Amino acid sequence: MRKSTIRTNPVHRIPCKACDLVPRLPLIFKNTRFTLRTGTPTIHPHSLARLMLFTTCSTKNNLGEPMSFEEISLFILLLCAAGLIAGITAGLFGNGGGFVVVPALLAVFPFLHSASDEMMRVAVGTSLASIVISSARSVQAHSKRGAVDFKVLRDWSIWIVLGVGAGLYIASFTDSKSLIYVFAGGVLLYSIYFLFPNLFDGLKGKLEMPTGFARASLASFLGGFSSLLGIGGGTITVMTMVLCNRPAHQAVATASGIGFLIGLPGAIGFLLMGLGAPDLPIGSIGYINVPALIAISIFSIISAPIGARWAHSLNELHLKRLFGVYLIAVSMAMFAKA
Q1: Which residues does 95 contact at the CB level (< 8 Å), separation at least 6?
Q2: How many Cα atoms sit within 13 Å of 292 on the Cβ side?
C-alpha cells in the first residue's frame, strides 16, 4: 500500500497541510467549478484559493508558531467577507468601504502577527489601496447609468489630493493609539448622518455646490480627514451634493469617484511611508498588506455592482439607519481597543 505523505513547507521545514492542499485544489473543485462574470476577468474558486494559500501558508501566527490550516482558512474567509461587504457599501452609499475594511483588518491581523504600533497604519494603508479598486469598479457601474458628475470630480481633485498629502504628513508622526481614537471618533460622527439622514432636510434647495474658497476648504478637509481614517470620503460628498439639490443617485455615484481620488494618493503615500518599517505583518509592502489587499479587492470588485443596483432599488432610509447602528458598534469597539 502506498504511504501517504504531507508536503513540507520549505520555509518552516515542517508538515504543512496548506502546501499539501494546493496541488489538489482542482480535484476538490472538480464538481463545483463555476464562473463569476461581472464584466471583469473570469475568476475560478481554485485559482483564488491557490493564490491566497500561497501567500499565507508560510506565515506564523501571533505566538510565533506556523499557522494551522484552520487559521489560514478563517483568515481568508474573514478577508473575503470584508471585501464583499466593502464592495456593497461602496456601490450602495458611495463610500469606499473603509468603515468595514479597517476594523476587519485590525481583527484579522493578529492571526498573522503580534500586536504592534504599526497595525493601525497597515490597516489604513491597505484600506486606502482597496478603496482604489472598489471605487473604480463602482464608478464604472454607475457611469453606465450616466449618474457620475465628472465636473465635480475635476473641480475637487486638486484640493482633495492636497488634503490627502496633509493627512499623510499627520499620520507619519501620529502614534497608533491616537490614530485609533481618530478613527473611532470619526466613525461615531459619521453615524449621526446615517442614523438621522433627514437631519439637514431643512437646508435642501437653499444651498449651491461650493465654489472658490469654500470648495477648496471642504475638499481639502475631506481628503485629509479621510486619509487618516482610511475611508473614501463618500459620506460627506453625498451629504453635500444632496443638500445642494443634486439627485441622491448622482451624489452616490460621484462620491465613488471621490473615493478613488482619495484612495490612490493615500495608498501610494502609505506604501512609501512604510518602506523599511519594522514589525509589519507578513506580506506587507510598506503599510499595505498584499494578501489582504488581494482578497478584499477581488471580492469588492464582484460585489460593488450589487451595491450599485441596490442603490437604485432598495429603501435608502432603512439601509442608512442599519448602517448607522453598525457604525456605532464599530466606534465603541475601536474606543475599547484603544
Answers
A1: 89, 231, 232, 233, 234, 235, 255, 259
A2: 35
Q: Is 94 left (phi over 0), alpha (psi -120 to 50) or beta?
A: left
Please give the model's pTM, rounded to 2 decimal places: 0.75
pLDDT at residue 36 is higher than 70: no
State the average pLDDT for the chain: 77
**144-147: long-range contacts (C-beta < 8 A, 24 or more apart)?**
145/249, 145/253, 145/308, 145/312, 147/247, 147/249, 147/250, 147/252, 147/253, 147/254
Output DSSP code: residue 315. -
- What is the per-residue pLDDT across 210-232, written as a single tens digit (0 to 9) for each? 889 999 999 999 999 999 999 88
Helix, coil or strand: residue 233 = coil
Residue type, 246: R
What local confidence, expressed as pLDDT, does residue 9 receive?
40
pLDDT of residue 265: 96
* Average pLDDT estimate for 99-124: 79
Q: Which three cell numbers stand for residue 6?
A: 504531507
The separation between CA 313 and the C-alpha centre of its own chain, rounded to angstroms, equals 24
Pick 67 or 45 by higher pLDDT.
67
The answer to whether residues 71 and 60 touch, using CB atoms and an 8 Å cutoff, is no
Any idea of the CA torsion for 259, 279, 169, 178, to the nearest 10 degrees?
90
- Which residues lie closer than 8 Å to 226 by C-beta, 6 or more apart? 98, 164, 167, 232, 233, 262, 266
E strands present in the chain: 8-9, 14-15, 284-285, 288-289
- Structure-block grid coordinates of residue 284: 506587507
* Closest alpha carbon to 135 in 124, 148, 145, 125: 148
Determine the Cα–Cα distance for residues 279 and 119; give it in Å rounded to an integer.
9
240-247: long-range pairs with CB below 8 Å, 24+: 240/209, 240/210, 241/149, 241/152, 241/209, 242/204, 243/200, 243/203, 243/204, 243/207, 244/207, 244/208, 244/209, 244/210, 245/204, 245/205, 245/207, 245/208, 246/149, 246/209, 247/147
Rounded to an integer, the average pLDDT of 242-267 is: 89
Task: Please determine, for residue 268, whether its predicted confidence score (pLDDT) is greater than 90.
Answer: yes
